[in-house]
Amino acid sequence: MIDQPPHDPTLDSKASATAPHEERRTIQSVERALDILEVLATGTDEMRLNEIARAARLNISTCHHLITTLLDRGYVGQNPRGRTYFLGNKTLELSRSRAAMIDLVKTAMPALRALNQSTGETVSLDVLRGADLVTLAMIESRHAVRVALDEGDKAEAAHATGSGKSILAWVPETELSRIIEEKGLRRFTEHTICSKDELIENLRLVRRNGCAIVREEFQPGVLCIGSAIRDHTGAVIGALCCALPTLRATDDAVARVCSEVKAAAVSLSLQLGGEPSALANELRAARATPERSTAA
């Protein structure tokens, strides 16, 4: 969607402040499970079942059933000797994942700002979380006419966006099949690729070019260009993307932005510990004119 300069966000806060109170619906079992985790997190030592139940204000039976589920999922651990409980490894994984996200955004922001400055267009840092495409950071275009991304639908649009295709191009085919099975290939516009075989062929082109050029597959009137970023292991962990209105997407502009997005992605990958020799081919590809998709 093409948008004019953003409205004053303070108007939203004023509107919400005067809006009538809406009752929030919560799921009691989820709340109780979270209470248990918070009790264990604030405890100074391992805790017995009756201690947890008392602190969480639950009866013993309910507390036991919830802890059994949390044990099975790895969010709670148990010491068999003293029959005491503590936070499980799964909570550490979540914490590390969140920390990694924060570190990635912090490291990527200079590159994102520079890309926004050089292209003048809307740029974003996107990652795949499960089967959802998630934007971790975004800087809007400085033009009066700019791209306004629909973040709600974007989660479902890994197959129809520049960043999504840049990531999907490097996932194993079994993982790609799982994502397609879970999310499907939703049609957003008449240009959206909704065939698995056609998508796989398109992703091969993305790998050859070192970037994905996606014209009006997610939003009418919008062209986006994405390129994958890698960590110190060589694994693709996200993508940089630049979105611009098709009215500014001349052949020269697309070639220039494509080169800048690819170069920025390679530079960021090097900062994240990527192996220079492994990224050399991608750096050369950044200077090359991308092949056109026959489906475009």
Automatic annotation (TrEMBL):
The keyword Protein biosynthesis does not apply. SMART domains: HTH_ICLR. Keywords: DNA-binding, Transcription, Transcription regulation. Residues 1-25 are annotated as: Disordered. Residues 1-11 have a biased composition (Basic and acidic residues). The keyword Transcription regulation applies. Coiled coil: none annotated. GO terms for biological process: negative regulation of DNA-templated transcription. Residues 27-89 form the HTH iclR-type domain. Residues 90-274 form the IclR-ED domain. InterPro entries: GAF-like_dom_sf, HTH_MetabolicPath_Reg, Tscrpt_reg_IclR_C, Tscrpt_reg_IclR_N, WH-like_DNA-bd_sf, WH_DNA-bd_sf. GO terms for molecular function: DNA binding; DNA-binding transcription factor activity. This is IclR family transcriptional regulator. The lineage of its organism: Bacteria, Pseudomonadati, Pseudomonadota, Alphaproteobacteria, Hyphomicrobiales.
